[in-house]
Design goal:
single chain; 579 residues; mainly alpha; Serine Threonine Protein Phosphatase 5, Tetratricopeptide repeat; disordered C terminus
Length: 579
């Protein structure tokens, strides 16, 4: 959906009524209970209730759901506890238990809109379309018109009356913000009912109001293809590729078109259509910052259509934003193996595993992914990044080289591969190769501040190309004035030339920006010492030590704490003995 529609869609969903349950913390996350250890339960209602609240505030709905369920054992008649447990079960994706709990909540609060929503979705799953319509009609939320109307329309499609479905949509308020979403689903319904020309008009309108939306573009292009307009379909994919280069859905579609393979419709029946409603709304509200509502919608979408790869990816990405990486890994695993999104899902899953300190699993997954592909670029880049994070620089350089070989002729977007391989070569003390890669990265992206910083800093350390190094570092700081590492680099350059006043101003700013970085604190200590502020220098060095400096730097820091820096001044233009 277009960005302008997000707030309107979020307001219309009715899920913001969760605030009434006291559940809308800044972020909530789902966790797959099959991968979570059993929690230690409290022996009192208050203990479990407080634990549930803390779990919710810590973005862990899995734990929250378990603690609320435990609380209910102490107070089985509490409507509040039942509602809290119900909502956290939905966010967790435990639909069996959520459906069971919905009966309890419904008895205590028959007008609960979320209960009616899950009952309606369950009825659509079971082909009970009259039941679905009845549940949506009795939705107690006053703000759920968009959700209820579109799902009701798809229930009418399932009941064999697409004409009534279109009438339902046409009676919806003509809100410019949600009009593209309405037109998209009206077009999909018209298409399923055999009115291809009218469908194309409506879907094209939705696309023109949402040109950055990958799935709207995909639906529009497939509609064009179905009418024999292959070149126009290809042009749509080429346009979206300018905005989302290398997106797997776009690449797959273009490859299929070039190979003469057919493009199938993604929305084939009423369940797919209803799932698309839920997915679209879930995507909208997550951009509006309402993670719990988003998770509920996306979970309901995959409940209706388990092979909805985009919804599973959206669930995983939501968890990543909440720092719930175990849950993200579980969601990525659910992307179907034959989906165009599977490769990118596996790559991102590997990166999450690496962050969870499961590097061996991550590396094995990337190697498996790479082995089944003809284009090795993306898995090898990810593999190189993981090896580099493990300081396995030789393996990292080899992986990046394989990625570059797979690319062939590089373009501007490939600067980062040369930059990453350059870092690996530099750490391997293979400077000529590193310098060549950094220069190639700048050739592809001349103003890239990360490369300007790394190459300029390296030259300063080597006391070479000083004029060019200073120009690079100044340009990097101009672009990234709040990046503590880049500010530190320019300050260190002044220090190396003995210009301590200039260095001090930059170094103190760098420490403010990166207070927890040992190298930045170590550098400021050196500046203080050279300016005669020896107590402050030792404070900074001690701080650098306590922050966990790299092993190769730790002994130097300990020596400086014990003995300070040599008394002789740094010669202007020469390298310092300090640092």
């Amino acid at each position: 959906m277009p960005r302008s529609s997000v707030r309107s869609a979020s307001a219309l969903t009715g899920l913001l009524a969760l605030l009434a349950f006291g559940l809308a913390s800044p972020a909530y996350a789902e966790a797959d209970t099959s991968t979570k250890a059993e929690l230690t339960k409290a022996n009192t209602l208050s203990g479990n209730y407080l634990a549930a609240l803390v779990a919710g505030l810590s973005s862990d709905t899995s734990a929250a759901a378990q603690y609320y369920a435990e609380s209910l054992k102490f107070d089985p008649h509490s409507a509040d506890l039942a509602e809290r447990a119900f909502v956290t079960l939905l966010g967790e994706g435990n639909m069996t238990e959520a459906l069971r709990m919905s009966q309890t909540v419904s008895r205590k609060n028959p007008g609960n809109g979320i209960v009616q929503l899950i009952l309606a979705v369950n009825a659509i799953r079971d082909g009970q379309f009259n039941t679905a319509k009845s549940a949506l009609k009795h939705n107690g939320s006053k703000n759920s018109d968009l959700t209820a109307s579109l799902l009701t329309a798809w229930a009418w499609v399932g009941a064999g009356n697409p004409k009534k479905a279109i009438e339902i949509i046409e009676k919806m308020p003509d809100d410019p913000a949600t009009r593209p979403f309405r037109n998209l689903h009206a077009g999909l319904i018209a298409k399923l009912s055999g009115n291809a020309d009218e469908a194309l008009i409506l879907i094209k309108s939705a696309y023109e109001n949402d040109r950055n939306g990958i799935l709207t573009a995909d639906i529009y292009a497939r509609s064009l293809y179905a009418l024999g307009k292959k070149d126009e379909a290809k042009a749509v994919y080429q346009d979206i590729a300018k905005i989302l280069p290398r997106h797997p859905l776009v690449r797959d579609a273009l490859e299929r078109l070039d190979a003469g393979k057919p493009l199938e419709d993604r929305i084939k029946n009423e369940k797919n259509g209803a799932a698309e409603v839920l997915f679209g709304l879930g995507s909208a509200v997550t951009r509006d910052g309402d993670e719990l509502s988003s998770l509920i919608y996306l979970r309901l979408a995959t409940w209706l259509q388990p092979d909805h790869a985009s919804a599973n990816v959206a669930i995983a990405e939501t968890y990543e934003r909440m720092k719930q990486l175990d849950s993200a890994v579980s969601a990525y695993e659910k992307v179907q193996t034959d989906s165009p999104l599977r490769v990118s899902a596996d790559i991102q899953r590997a990166l999450d595993l690496e962050q969870l300190n499961r590097s061996d699993e991550a590396i094995a997954l990337l190697k498996q992914t790479n082995a089944r592909l003809t284009d090795h670029t993306e898995p090898l880049i990810a593999l190189g990044n993981i090896y580099r994070s493990k300081k396995a620089f030789a393996e990292a350089a080899e992986a990046y080289s394989g990625a570059l070989q797979s690319i062939g002729a590089p373009n501007q977007s490939h600067w980062s591969i040369y930059y990453s391989r350059g870092i690996a070569y530099e750490r391997l003390k293979r400077w000529p190769e590193a310098e060549a890669d950094f220069r190639k990265a700048l050739e592809l992206s001349p103003e890239q501040p990360l490369v300007l910083n790394y190459l300029g800093y390296s030259w300063i350390e080597q006391n070479s190309n000083l004029d060019e190094a200073f120009r690079m570092l100044r340009r990097a700081v101009e672009q990234r004035p709040t990046d503590g590492y880049i500010v530190d680099s320019l300050g260190w350059a002044f220090y190396r030339l003995g210009q301590y006043d200039n260095a001090l101003q930059l170094m103190e700013k760098a420490v403010q920006l990166k207070a927890a970085d040992p190298t930045v604190n170590d550098h400021l200590g050196d500046v203080y010492w050279r300016m005669g502020r020896k107590l402050e220098a030792k404070f900074q060095w001690n701080h650098a030590r306590d922050l966990g400096a790299e092993p190769e730097d730790m002994q130097k820091i300990l020596d400086k704490i014990a003995n300070g820096l040599p008394d002789e001044p740094v010669a202007t233009g020469g390298a310092s003995n300090g640092g």
